Description:
By secondary structure, the protein is α/β, with parallel strands linked by helices. It has 13 helices and nine strands. Helix 1 (about 1-20) packs antiparallel against helix 13 and helix 4 packs across helix 6 (about 150-165).
Amino acid sequence: MAKLGQIKRYLSYMLSYNLNIPLRYPHEVNFQMTNRCPLRCKMCEIWKLNANPKKELSVDVMKRIMDECRDLGINYISFVGGEALVRRKDTLELVGYANSKGLHTTIVSNAYFLDEKVCEKLLDVGLNRLALSLDGAKRETHDFIRGRGNYDKVIEAAKTILKLRKKKQIKVDFTSVVMSYNFRELVDIYWLGKKIGVDQVFYQAVVLDNTFKNFDYNEEVWINGEDLEDLKSIIKKLISLKRQDDFIFNSVEYLRSIPEYFEKRGNFKFGACLAGFMNLNIDPYGNISVCGLGPNLNVRDRRISDLWTHEEFSKTRSLIKRCKRPCLMLCYEKFGIRDMFKHLIS
Ligand code: SF4
Ligand code: SF4
């Protein structure tokens, strides 16, 4: 039944995509709580932005948006960054509020602030999913990418929250950005996740520029040349592990596309991009922004229902259809009808 609901949902988003008319509200609202972050990860451009904490969206405005979400039948809310827990008091309050309204919540975190006290609070306020960023099975690999001492924080945070949770009240997973520095450890990350007892692992091919300002390839993190052959055989192993159980979140189709993504670069394409139909991404200052393509509307001035059907959003959706970036971003669904069925049965 769940899959039937999923199929109906995809079909209506696909129809919206083809007509360029949003026939239903987004599946998920994504609050980018802040651009601030204590880490300086190698593949990231966000920490280089000039963050302006004074202009960040207030808790009251975000609560108003969540009220609207509930009224419109949007049930999924995620809190990301930068590092969302730079604003931990606000994020905790918002998760608690969302929970009281029956909304499903996710926090994506680098674990920097996740000591035992904060883990307890996340459970108290009823967080549904914690996605921890883990980019290496080895301490030295992860810390090289994300900064010294961070590996231990991620592993400790995962263990703490798994120890404190009752009856799987919260899902805990590892998300790994696939790049040149760590692709040889992808299978080991799978086994590490199993050993620690997290619920799933997600693999996310590195994004070209996560601020969407440039179209430049960061050759340092891109997988090239002879490494691509090694990547292909590693991905084959992941696919066979995926088929054994559902511990790897990604679809077989997604996994299979990873080497092609690195190899084909600008010629890579992975189905229709539903970003402007399934997701509403709100930046720290209240702007609605899809991968730098607009619509440059602000939630401070408008209700979600108004901006979702706004003319500017239609223009953004047209731009999304013409987007030339090679893209395997997990947070934005990309499927054709054929891919959708493959995804659902894989
Ligand atoms: S990838 Fe995330 S944790 Fe790393 S610097 Fe960027 S925002 Fe911070
Ligand atoms: S394909 Fe979609 S999700 Fe990817 S960069 Fe383009 S608009 Fe964004």
